[in-house]
Specification:
By secondary structure, the protein is α+β, with helices and mostly antiparallel strands. 26% of the residues lie in helices and 20% in strands. Helix 1 packs parallel to helix 2. The longest helix is centred in the middle third of the chain and has 20 residues.
Length: 314
């Protein structure tokens, strides 16, 4: 087969998103800084079942996404999220990691399973704790040599692709140059984004998609109790903490993080939170609203090695 530059295209014509909800997103090392991503996923999954009125027992597959190993039981994240949300033990659950593309990938995995006839209903959960990314050492299983103790910040080191010697930030700067994006362009987009988010927060638009968090326990017969524990002075966490006024005069004064257009003010936030979605085939859940389900989304991404991926959700 001749080599050619092409993307992976996935088109789903009869797969529908029944309902979705999310936790509020908390700033790095903020109110959710000590909460396991598993418990955030459990809370969000339980709430999406509550809102959609879907019976967890009807779920045929659970697909979860979590990039970082932010807890010691991370290997069983999908199983714990599923069980504590009420999904039967017999239902398969898996974990997907595709870096920044993980969110769209877990939707595609569930849609593929439905398209292939493996199930009629899937639970999709994305959950992440950036704050709990570990300070790691991979070379000390056999002990510590004199002067050779090496621990690194996983949250920072994982952004480097050692094959290309390029960080995620460097890749973004390269794309900014290719697309001829100036620092002003990027700052102005960030300003507009914050303004829209503040307006959506003020008029209650975002409240409809958020499930408030409080200190609570998740019990499951025959298993140990899990739960969320907020800081002592926080009774309830209800809104995204990263959304804040960000005027242009402030954004333009921030120092570039990678020598180009990116700054702490115009880059994506480092936050903690979780988002679940129920998906299935139109023929099964015909009551799903067209206005929600006919939304079309395009996603385009490029890796430091110039790999491309286009996904269309139709």
């Amino acid at each position: 087969m001749a080599s050619k530059s092409s993307g992976l295209v996935s088109v789903f014509n009869d797969i529908w998103l029944i309902d979705g909800v999310r936790t509020p997103f908390a700033d790095y090392n903020g109110v959710l800084g000590l909460v396991s991503p598993i418990d955030l996923g459990i809370k969000a999954a339980k709430e999406v079942f509550n809102r959609s009125k879907v019976n967890p027992a009807d779920v045929g597959t659970v697909v979860t996404g979590c990039m970082a190993q932010a807890c010691f039981d991370a290997y069983v994240l999908p199983r714990h999220v599923a069980l504590y949300a009420g999904v039967p033990r017999e239902t398969p659950a898996m974990l997907v990691q595709r870096v920044c593309g993980t969110g769209i990938e877990i939707l595609m995995q569930a849609a593929d399973a439905i398209t292939l006839g493996k199930t009629e209903l899937g639970l999709v959960v994305g959950t992440e704790s950036m704050s709990r990314n570990p300070i790691s050492a991979y070379t000390h299983r056999g002990g510590f040599l004199l002067g050779q103790v090496e621990f690194k910040d996983f949250l920072f080191e994982a952004l480097l692709d050692p094959i290309a010697g390029v960080t995620m930030g460097d890749c973004a700067e390269s794309l900014a140059k290719e697309c001829k994006l100036s620092r002003e362009d990027v700052d102005r987009f960030a300003f507009s984004s914050f303004e829209r988010a503040l307006a959506a927060q003020a008029n209650g638009f975002l409240a409809g998609e958020i499930t408030p968090l409080k200190t609570e326990e998740f019990k499951l017969e025959g298993y140990n109790t899990r739960g969320i524990k907020l800081p002592k002075k926080v009774a309830e966490f209800t809104v995204d903490s990263h959304i804040r006024p960000s005027p242009m005069e402030i954004l333009t004064k921030l120092r570039p993080a990678f020598g180009g257009v990116q700054t702490a003010g115009n880059s994506s936030a480092i936050v903690d939170g979780a988002v679940p979605i129920n998906s299935n085939r139109w023929a099964v859940w015909s009551r799903v609203a067209w206005s929600v389900c006919r939304r079309r989304t395009w996603v385009s991404a490029r890796s430091p090695l110039s790999g491309r991926c286009w996904t269309r959700w139709d």
